[in-house]
Amino acid sequence: MADAKRPSQDQWTNVQAYTLAVVCLGVGVAGGWLVRGSQAPAAVAAAAVTAPDATNNTVQPSPEQMKRTADAQAEPLLAQLKADPGNPARRVQIGNVYYDAQQFETAIEYYQQALKVKPHDSSVRTDMATAYWYLGVSIPP
């Protein structure tokens, strides 16, 4: 029974485990400092500003290109709207197309038309209010 209380030779003691954890933490901090932290702060900031974003090498389209794209995407929805002019959901879809293309004035027009049919739609009111906010216009009463 005396053997059951003695720690096994294969197990670590608490002191050994904590010592290993502290050593690993110290090696990790020192390695991180050597790899990244030893650079001057100005060099790190300059590298962050001038380094191209490897994940997103796309160029932002111009507002005219975005308008043309939105018009093309809205064209089939407008045809569907002509077939069912009382459909507020279709007006919301068209408004969303223009909203996503940052054509907020046009999006607001379609949101207003949808709200005339379904005035208590909170998601449309939120989208319209956000479009007004992007335009820098206060929301009319």
Structure description:
With 141 residues, the chain is an all-alpha fold. It has two domains: 49 residues; 73 residues, Serine Threonine Protein Phosphatase 5, Tetratricopeptide repeat, CATH 1.25.40.10. The chain contains seven helices and no strands. α4 packs antiparallel against α5 and α6 packs antiparallel against α7. The longest helix is centred in the N-terminal third of the chain and has 24 residues. The mean pLDDT is 82.
Topology:
Elements: H1 2-5, H2 14-37, H3 41-50, H4 63-83, H5 88-100, H6 104-117, H7 122-135
Helix pairs in contact: 4-5, 5-6, 6-7
Count of helical segments?
Answer: 7
Question: In CATH's first tier, which class of the largest domain applies?
Answer: Mainly Alpha
CATH architecture name of the largest domain: Alpha Horseshoe
Form type: elongated
Sequence of secondary-structure elements = HHHHHHH
Poorly predicted segments: none
What summary fits the major beta sheet? none
Give me the secondary-structure category.
mainly alpha
Could you name the CATH homologous superfamily of the largest domain? Tetratricopeptide repeat domain
Percent helix among the residues? over 70%
Can you give the mean pLDDT?
82
Strand content: under 5%
Beta strand count: 0
**CATH topology descriptor of the largest domain:** Serine Threonine Protein Phosphatase 5, Tetratricopeptide repeat
Q: How much is the radius of gyration in Å?
A: 31 Å
Q: Separation of termini?
A: 85 Å
| Count of the domains | 2
In short:
The protein is mainly alpha-helical and 141 residues long. It has helices at residues 2-5, 14-37, 41-50, 63-83, 88-100, 104-117, 122-135.
